[in-house]
């Protein structure tokens, strides 16, 4: 392509499109039709230049022109309660359902790691000694010790808010840092499982594992599931960088990244529920079986939400990504 000849042949169309976009008055019907036609032609021109004779200055100008024209043609749309409903009933559960092949194995492996760490710590006194002095460990594991008073150490409302903030940050980090080939996600998961394993090991060595599980299970089932979903999604995002499949790497990362952002919002809501359980149910005076039953009910409700609503939405084509109308326009690449 002779770039100078190409520019000379089409500059008048670009200038005309720029002039129409700059009009302060309302366009007539003929001018609107002209704007749409010029927008389509300019988008094709931009694609031809990018593929045949890329020029940074010209590409920048046409990209800005095409973006302005697209905004004028498609208009802007404000979010509504209908969007929120669609997100909760279709987008979010579909995204979690689609990622199940990543987060379910992540959950199983992580749980196994936590159990093995707990067994190792609980059966090896020398490992326990490296964690803390005998008096410190007794203070942590005795009846009324730190493991039990932790959940009632602050007012329920502030404690629930603090727990929710910390867990939401951890989930967001798993989602965002997945782009780094998933390595930071594995480290975050390991730290969480190590913390759980230490509690299991120390309390089991003190003969109080049932008490520990009675404190952890009411909120921990849903909380850990949300963390596993975030971690699995982060790992999938990292793998997309390695193997984008039939899509281009840029397109694949954009689609999976947008879905991950939506999942961060949805998981924040899930963690809000688990935080409320941890703040109000775990330290309550309810019998242990009742507190665990509440935790199991919340977990089962979430899994049904994902596999029933999410599975149906995924089969109907929902992915958790934004709608086609809200994505960047793809222009032809053939000259």
Report on the structure:
With 335 residues, the protein is mainly α. The chain contains 13 helices and no strands. It has helices at residues 3-21, 29-52, 56-74, 81-98, 100-123, 125-131, 134-141, 146-149, 156-177, 183-205, 209-242, 249-281, 288-315. The longest helix has 34 residues, at 209-242. The model is unreliable at 324-335 (pLDDT under 50).
Strand content: under 5%
Q: Profile the largest sheet.
A: none
Shape: elongated
- DSSP summary: helix tally: 13
Radius of gyration: 27 Å
Specify the helix fraction band: over 70%
Number of E-state strands: 0
Summary, kept brief:
This protein is mainly alpha-helical. Helix content is 79%, strand content 0%. It has 13 helices and no strands.
Task: Indicate the topology.
Layout: H1 3-21, H2 29-52, H3 56-74, H4 81-98, H5 100-123, H6 125-131, H7 134-141, H8 146-149, H9 156-177, H10 183-205, H11 209-242, H12 249-281, H13 288-315
Helix pairs in contact: 1-2, 1-3, 2-3, 4-12, 4-13, 5-10, 5-11, 9-10, 9-11, 9-12, 10-11, 11-12, 11-13, 12-13
What distinguishing features does this structure have?
about 325 residues; mainly alpha; 13 helices; about 0% strand; elongated; disordered C terminus
């Amino acid at each position: 392509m002779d770039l100078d000849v190409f520019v000379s042949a089409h500059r008048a169309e670009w200038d005309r499109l720029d002039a129409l976009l700059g009009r302060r008055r309302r366009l007539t019907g003929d001018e609107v039709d002209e704007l749409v036609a010029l927008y389509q032609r300019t988008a094709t021109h931009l694609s031809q230049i990018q593929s045949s004779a890329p020029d940074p200055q010209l590409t920048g100008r046409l990209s800005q022109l095409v973006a302005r024209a697209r905004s004028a043609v498609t208009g802007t749309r404000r979010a509504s309660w209908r969007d929120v409903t669609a997100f909760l009933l279709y987008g979010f559960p579909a995204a979690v359902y689609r990622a199940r092949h990543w987060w379910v194995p992540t959950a199983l492996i992580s749980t196994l790691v936590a159990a093995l760490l707990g067994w190792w710590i609980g059966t090896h006194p020398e490992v326990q000694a490296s964690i803390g002095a005998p008096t410190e460990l007794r203070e942590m594991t005795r009846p009324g010790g730190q493991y039990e008073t932790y959940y009632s150490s602050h007012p329920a409302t502030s404690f629930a808010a603090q727990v929710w903030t910390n867990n939401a940050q951890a989930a967001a980090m798993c989602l965002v840092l997945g782009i780094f080939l998933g390595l930071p996600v594995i480290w975050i998961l390991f730290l969480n499982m190590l913390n759980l394993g230490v509690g299991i090991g120390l309390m089991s060595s003190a003969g109080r594992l049932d008490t520990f599980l009675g404190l952890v299970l009411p909120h921990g089932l849903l909380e850990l599931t949300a963390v596993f979903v975030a971690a699995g999604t982060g790992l999938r995002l990292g793998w997309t960088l390695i193997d984008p499949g039939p899509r281009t790497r840029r397109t694949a990362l954009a689609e999976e990244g947008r879905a991950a952002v939506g999942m961060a919002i949805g998981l924040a809501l899930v963690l809000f529920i688990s935080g409320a359980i941890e703040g109000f149910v775990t330290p309550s005076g309810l019998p242990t079986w009742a507190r665990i039953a509440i935790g199991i009910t919340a977990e089962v409700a979430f899994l049904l939400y994902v596999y029933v609503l999410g599975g149906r939405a995924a089969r109907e084509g929902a992915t958790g990504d934004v709608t086609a109308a809200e994505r960047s326009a793809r222009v032809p690449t053939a000259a």
